[in-house]
Amino acid sequence: MHDTTILDYEFEAHPQPVTAGDRESLLANPGFGKIFTDHMVVIRYSADRGWHDARVQPRGPIQIDPACAVLHYAQEIFEGLKAYRLPDNGAALFRPAENARRFRESAERMAMAPLPETMFLSSIRELVRVDRDWIPEGEGASLYLRPFMFASETFLGVKPASEYLYMVIASPAGAYFKGGAPSVTLWTSEHYTRAARGGTGAAKCGGNYAASLVAQAEAIREGCDQVVFLDAVENRFVEELGGMNVFFVFEDGSIQTPPLGGTILPGITRDSLLTLARDAGIVVREAPYRMQDWQKDAESGRLREAFACGTAAVVTPIGRVRGRGFDFTIGNGGPGLLTEQLRSQLTAIQRGTAADPHGWVERLF
Prior knowledge:
By secondary structure, this protein is of the alpha+beta class. It is built from eight helices and 18 strands. The radius of gyration is 21 Å and the shape is globular.
């Protein structure tokens, strides 16, 4: 056994970092996922040595063999979390221990070497500390952190790899959806499902997202922003979007979201919103919801609001839902009162402008 919960990081400064002036220009309008900081974290794993060779080094290309296991058998997982600029110019993470736990669980589901949760957390802290000047300021802005791991062993054979590469990169982020639309329009997938029981739906692995892209492309062709998937067994129950969980708000003030059970990603934003709603005395249900009931309730007025949520998009109102043979609007087609209330409450906690009763925020500096 290897005691690998604590590693010392070797630091190599970038020889030509982005200048302060150029960085300021980039941070003025970063978009999402297109700009990257100067450094990255790299930690290696091998069956004989355990986790070793932890480094913070200049961000750059990596070299892999054509027979690298991930290219053939797709052992790969990732996470997404954010560092937020605080009012006093410090910085904080939001519930990073939950990302660490989910990363470990994803690794176990994909038969990969689980990264110790303490190591996950230290890698995030190290990168934010080094590239702290890349955290943008302003409403909705953050430093998006992308930890990921893949099978790096060179072999052709269907078995769990014995070597892995864990990395963290960081990207200054603005709004997730282009144009800052007040709500999104969904396309209901008729031919494709995201996950089935016993599959990898609860793991945050690239294969889940790759499988969703053909449905997302169909949604774009139909003039929609996102795809919504139904269950794989009966093709009737709403599950989740291509990359986000979904919530429903009813006229009696209650909210509902599809239950976990192995087919839906256990979103950290989802869990946070459920907690905030319960704190406010709102009736919360984690229960199946049929697509035909979604349409019926929207048209009758019983359903007042709907929203999607996730780390990248935070809380995004759903204004319209389309599919083959149906097209309906939710409420007035824009953000609803409870949606905005929950979003404002969550983002205020994340950015240090509201009380944090659950101890979710970890201040870094």
